[in-house]
Amino acid sequence: xxxxxxxxxxxxxxxxxxxxxxxxxxxxxxxxxxxxxxxxxxxxxxxxxxxxxxxxxxxxxxxxxxxxxxxxxxxxxxxxxxxxxxxxxxxxxxxxxxxxxxxxxxxxxxxxxxxxxxxxxxxxxxxxxxxxxxxxxxxxxxxxxxxxxxxxxxxxxxxxxxxxxxxxxxxxxxxxxxxxxxxxxxxxxxxxxxxxxxxxxxxxxxxxxxxxxxxxxxxxxxxxxxxxxxxxxxxxxxxxxxxxxxxxxxxxxxxxxxxxxxxxxxxxxxxxxxxxxxxxxxxxxxxxxxxxxxxxxxxxxxxxxxxxxxxxxxxxxxxxxxxxx
Length: 325
Hints:
By secondary structure, this protein is α/β, with parallel strands linked by helices. It is 49% helix and 10% strand.
C-alpha cells in the first residue's frame, strides 16, 4: 500500500503528506531555554507556567467566577444539562414538586415522639408547644410522601426501562425524594435538578447518579424543569413549591409555553394555601386561568387525569416519539 501511495505521489510530483500530529523536526518551542544559556531561565519559565494569566480561559475558574463572566456561566448551565439529557435520550418528563419537609411516615412519627419527650421534660416551653403542633401536622401530611412515591412508580412503569417518560424532581428530600424513590422501586431511571445553596446539602439517594445535575441559577434550573415537561404535579409545599408552580402557571397563561396538565395533590391544603377562586372573583385572573389546574388526592387519580388530558388533546403519552419543539 505504501509503495502504491509513493508511486502516486511521484507521478503527481507532490511531496509526502505531513503526519497529522508529529513532525520530523521539532519546532524550537518544544523545549525550554537550556540552563547553560541562562541558569535562571527554568525558574522564570516555571513562574510563567504557574501564573493565572497563562491558564487556558476555559480552565480558569477565577475568570469564570467573575461577575463579567455571568453570561458565559448562564450559557454553560443551559448547555451541560441539555447535552446530558440528549445523550441519555430523555425527551419527555413528568415534573414533581413538593415540600422538602414532608418526610416518610416512620420518620415523621419519630420526630413527633422526640418533640413529645422534650415537651414532657419542659411543659411550659412555648417553642416546644409550637413545635409539637407542627410535628403533628407533618405526621398527618406524611401520607403525601407515600402518594408521591406511588406516583413515581406509576410514571416509571408507564415509561418502561427506556427514556420515553422520566420522573424529574428538584433532587432534594421530602416529596422529591419520594417521587424519585418510586421510580427507583420500579427499576427505572429518574432525574434530579439540585441547586447550589450557601449551606451544605445533599441530593436524595434515589436519583439516577448519572442524571443528577446541580445548578447555580434558579432560573436555568426552572428552564430545564419546563423544557421537556409533559405534566406538572405539585404536592403541598412552601415558598419553593409555590414559586415553581406559579412560574409554570404564568408561562401557560401567557402561552409562552404550550399548555400542559397541572395537578395539585391535596385539595384541602391547596384551597387554604391559595384561593384561586378568589382571584377569579377579584378579576385578577380569568375563569379560563383557573381551569389551567385541577386537584387530585391519589397517585392513580393524578396519573389517570394526566393520561386523559393528553388523550383529549390528541397527544397520548403512550405514543411519544421526539421532544416537542
